[in-house]
Write a structure and sequence with these properties.
The protein is an alpha+beta fold and about 700 residues long.
Length: about 700
C-alpha cells in the first residue's frame, strides 16, 4: 500500500441554485483544503467539480495518514523534582504518571533559566480515514447557504435534498455518513440519459466515467466552454453572431449537465418592438442567447441550450418557439399601445408617483432636475434648453406599458419613444443615458445634454436623502446613494468635466429648500461622502491611500482636479528625489507647526547670510514664475517634476543652516523661506503625507 492515494468526494443533490453553484464549488474546495492543511494531511492538486445535481472535489496524492510528530512535554524544574534526600517529589511523580512513564524515563533539559525534566516521545500519525469525515462535514457546514431546507422525515438540513454521497480514498470507501446517506463508491448519471448508478473505480476516473457513461460534464469550466462553442457554431450556421452575456452563460452552465444547443426562430414582425425588450425576454426570462447580424442588429433567431440529447430535436425547437411567441406578442401589444400616447402626456401622472414622502413626487423631482440640468449644461457648454427638455421628459417613460412590463428598460423606452416622435437626437439619447452608469463598469452618458441630466438626477437624490437624515448606514443603502456618488465621480472624472462639486451640491440644496429648509446645512456632509467614494474609486484603480491623502490636504473641491493632482503625485513618487523631498516637507511642516507666532509673508534677500540658504532661495525664486504658469494650465505633473529640482538645495540647507537661530530676524527670514517652499508644494499636494 502506497503512502498516498487520490481522494474523491461527491455530494449528489436535487438541482442546486444556478446562481450560487460556482460559489458553492469554490467554497467547498477552500474549506476542505483548509481542513486538510489544519489536520496536517499532505496532498497535491485539488480539482473542484460542479453540475446542477452535484458538488465534487478530487484531491491528488492525499496522504493516508499524518506524519508522526515529535512531542516534548516539560515537567518540573530539577531542583523541585527531588527532596533533600534525593527522592522524587509529588510534582515529579505526578508529572511522570500523567505522561504514562516512570520518573527514571524522563530526560533532563538545560536552559538559560536552569534544568528541567522533560518527557520526549513521538506522537503517531492519524489515519486519513479517521480525519476525513470531520473535515468534510465541517466544510459542508461552512458553505455559504443561508437558506437551508429539510426533506422527508430527516432532520438534516442542506440547501437542497441530498440523494447520495461518494467518498473514495484510493480504492477504499471512506466510512462517513452525511445527511442520512452512507458514503459509497457510486455516483449517478444524467437524470434521463443514465439515471442508474455508476461505480467509480478510482478517484481520477470520476470525470471521465460521468462523461462517457453518465452523460454528465462535471467540470464547470469545461461545460461552459462547450456551451459557448456550441452556441457560436449554431449562430454561424444561421449566418449571424451569438450575443453571449457572460452572466447568462454562467447561469446556463449551472442549469445543464449535458448541453445541446438548439436554434429557434420567431416571426420577423416582432423586430418592430425595441430590441432591448426582446433581448430582455430571451435572456432574462427564457435563458436564450439572441443572434445578431454583422451590423449588430437583432435577427429573428435565438439559441437555447437543452439539457438532453433528444431523438426529436425539432420538437425541442418548436417547443421553445411556442414559449417565446406569446411573450413577444405581449411586448408588441404594449409597444404599439405606447406609440399612440405622446411621451410628455405622462408627465402629469408623475404627480401621483411618490419619490420620497418628504421630498415629494417624481414630478417634483423632475422640476428640480430640470433647473439643475440647465445650470450644469451652461457650465459644460452644452445646450441648456435641450438639457431642460430632456430633464422634463426623463421620467415619463416610467408610466408607459413597456416599462411597466420591462422595468429594467426605463430610459431605453423613453429614447425609443422620443425618437419616434422626432425629438432632437441629443434629447432622445439623454432620456436613456442619464441612467448611465447603471452598474460598475457601465458606459457613461454620451454628450453634454445627457451628462447634465445624469449629474442633476444623482445630485438631487444625494442632496435630498442626506437632507432628510437618511444617509447610508452600514450595508443599508435603500436609495443606492453609494452608486449615485460613484456615478457622479465617474462622469466628472472620466469625462473630464472640471466642475466645483460643492457649488453643484449648493444648487441641488437650493432646489429642495422649499421642502427641507435646512438642506444647505448638509452640503459638506454630502461632499465628504462623495469624497470618500473617490478614495475607494482611486484605490480600486491602484492609487495609493497616501497619495489620496496628500491631495486631500489641498482642499480642492473639483473631482477632476483631484484626479489630475493624484496622477501627478503618482508620477512624482517614481522620481529619485521623491522620498527625500517628502521627508523634507514633513520636517518643514513640523518646524512651522512648532513655531509660536506669525511667519513673515516675504523673504528678505539681505537677511540670507549663509551660502546654502542663498542658493535655496535662488532656486525657489527661479521656479516660482514657471510654476505659476504650469498651475494655471493644470499641468500638475510637470509642476511637481520642476519642484523635484529643489531636492539638492533643500538637503544642503538643512545640513548647514540652523533654522531656529537666536537672531530673531534671521530665524523669521528662514521660516519665511520654508513657508514659501511649503506653499509651492501645497499648491499641488502635501507630499509630506507620502509614505516611504
Amino acid at each position: 500500500m502506497t503512502d498516498t492515494a487520490d481522494f474523491l468526494f461527491e455530494l449528489g443533490t436535487e438541482e442546486l441554485p444556478p446562481k450560487a453553484l460556482t460559489t458553492l464549488r469554490d467554497a467547498l474546495e477552500d474549506e476542505i483544503r483548509a481542513g486538510l492543511d489544519e489536520a496536517g494531511l499532505a496532498h497535491g492538486k485539488l480539482t473542484a467539480y460542479a453540475a446542477p445535481r452535484r458538488l465534487a472535489l478530487l484531491v491528488d496524492d492525499l496522504a493516508r495518514a499524518t506524519e508522526p510528530k515529535p512531542v516534548e512535554r516539560r515537567g518540573p524544574a530539577v531542583k523541585a523534582a527531588y527532596d533533600a534526600d534525593g527522592n522524587p517529589t509529588k510534582a515529579l511523580t505526578g508529572f511522570a504518571t500523567g505522561c504514562g512513564v516512570s520518573p527514571d524515563q524522563l530526560e533532563t533539559m538545560t536552559t538559560d533559566k536552569g534544568e528541567w525534566l522533560v518527557h520526549r516521545y513521538t506522537e503517531p500519525g492519524q489515519s486519513a480515514a479517521d480525519l476525513l469525515p470531520a473535515i468534510v462535514e465541517r466544510a459542508l457546514d461552512k458553505l455559504p447557504t443561508p437558506k437551508r431546507m429539510r426533506w422527508g422525515s430527516s432532520r438534516a438540513e442542506f440547501i437542497r435534498p441530498v440523494h447520495w454521497v461518494l467518498a473514495l480514498h484510493g480504492d477504499q470507501v471512506v466510512d462517513m455518513t452525511l445527511f442520512g446517506h452512507a458514503a459509497g463508491n457510486q455516483t449517478f448519471g444524467h437524470r434521463f440519459h443514465h439515471p442508474e448508478a455508476l461505480t467509480v473505480s478510482a478517484p481520477a476516473d470520476y470525470a471521465a466515467t460521468l462523461q462517457k457513461q453518465g452523460f454528465v460534464l462535471a467540470d464547470f469550466a469545461e461545460r461552459r466552454a462547450h456551451i459557448e462553442s456550441q452556441v457560436k457554431a449554431k449562430a454561424d450556421e444561421i449566418g449571424g453572431r451569438a450575443h453571449i452575456d457572460t452572466d447568462l452563460l454562467d447561469e446556463v452552465t449551472a442549469l445543464v449537465e449535458w448541453p445541446v444547443a438548439v436554434a429557434g426562430e420567431f416571426e420577423a414582425r416582432f423586430l418592430d418592438v425595441p430590441h432591448e425588450a426582446l433581448m430582455y425576454t430571451m435572456q432574462d426570462d427564457q435563458k436564450y442567447f439572441p443572434v445578431l447580424d454583422a451590423h449588430g442588429a437583432l435577427m429573428p433567431w435565438f439559441i437555447t441550450v437543452a439539457n438532453i440529447e433528444s431523438r426529436d430535436i425539432e420538437a425541442v425547437r418548436h417547443g421553445n418557439e411556442r414559449v417565446i411567441r406569446p411573450r413577444f406578442s405581449d411586448a408588441m401589444f404594449f409597444w404599439e399601445g405606447d406609440l399612440k400616447t405622446p411621451l410628455e402626456s405622462h408627465l402629469e401622472s408623475l404627480k401621483h408617483l411618490v419619490f420620497q414622502k418628504r421630498l415629494g413626487s417624481v414630478f417634483d423631482k423632475v422640476l428640480r432636475i430640470e433647473q439643475l440640468a440647465e445650470a450644469i449644461a451652461r457650465q459644460i457648454e452644452a445646450d441648456p434648453q435641450a438639457a431642460r427638455r430632456a430633464a422634463r421628459l426623463s421620467k415619463c417613460d416610467l408610466q408607459t406599458q413597456m416599462v411597466g412590463e420591462f422595468a429594467g428598460l426605463q430610459g431605453t423606452i423613453g429614447r425609443y419613444l422620443a425618437t419616434h416622435e422626432g425629438m432632437d437626437e441629443d434629447v432622445a439619447i439623454a432620456l436613456d443615458d442619464h441612467y448611465r452608469p447603471r452598474r460598475a463598469g457601465d458606459d457613461l452618458p454620451r454628450g453634454g445634454v445627457a451628462q447634465a441630466v445624469a449629474l442633476a438626477d444623482r445630485l438631487d437624490t444625494l442632496m435630498g436623502i442626506f437632507a432628510i437624515g437618511q444617509a447610508p448606514t452600514g450595508a443599508k443603502d435603500p436609495f443606492a446613494l453609494r452608486r449615485a456618488a460613484l456615478g457622479v465621480l465617474r462622469i466628472l472624472v472620466e469625462q473630464e468635466l472640471d466642475l466645483d462639486l460643492v457649488e453643484l451640491l449648493e444648487m441641488a440644496a437650493a432646489g429642495i429648500a422649499d421642502k427641507v429648509p435646512e438642506a444647505n446645512d448638509h452640503v459638506m456632509g454630502v461632499f465628504e461622502f462623495i469624497t470618500e467614494r473617490q478614495h475607494r474609486y482611486s484605490l480600486d484603480r491602484g492609487i495609493r491611500s497616501d497619495v489620496f491623502q496628500a491631495v486631500s490636504m489641498t482642499g480642492t473641491r473639483r473631482p477632476l482636479d483631484f484626479e489630475q493632482r493624484m496622477r501627478a503625485v503618482n508620477a512624482f513618487i517614481e522620481l529619485p528625489e521623491a522620498e527625500a523631498l517628502a521627508a523634507a516637507n514633513k520636517r518643514i511642516g513640523n518646524i512651522l507647526k512648532k513655531h509660536d507666532g506669525p511667519v513673515p509673508e516675504s523673504v528678505i534677500d539681505a537677511r540670507l547670510v549663509e551660502p546654502a540658504e542663498q542658493r535655496l532661495w535662488e532656486a525657489v525664486d527661479a521656479i516660482g514664475p514657471r510654476l505659476e504658469g504650469l498651475l494655471a494650465e493644470g499641468d500638475y505633473t510637470e509642476a511637481l517634476t520642476a519642484l523635484a529640482a529643489l531636492r539638492e538645495p533643500v538637503d544642503a540647507f538643512f545640513d548647514s543652516v540652523m533654522v531656529m537661530a537666536d537672531d530673531t530676524a534671521l530665524r523669521d527670514n528662514r521660516l519665511a523661506l520654508l513657508a514659501r517652499i511649503n506653499a509651492l508644494f501645497l499648491a499641488i499636494a502635501d507630499v509630506s503625507q507620502l509614505q516611504a
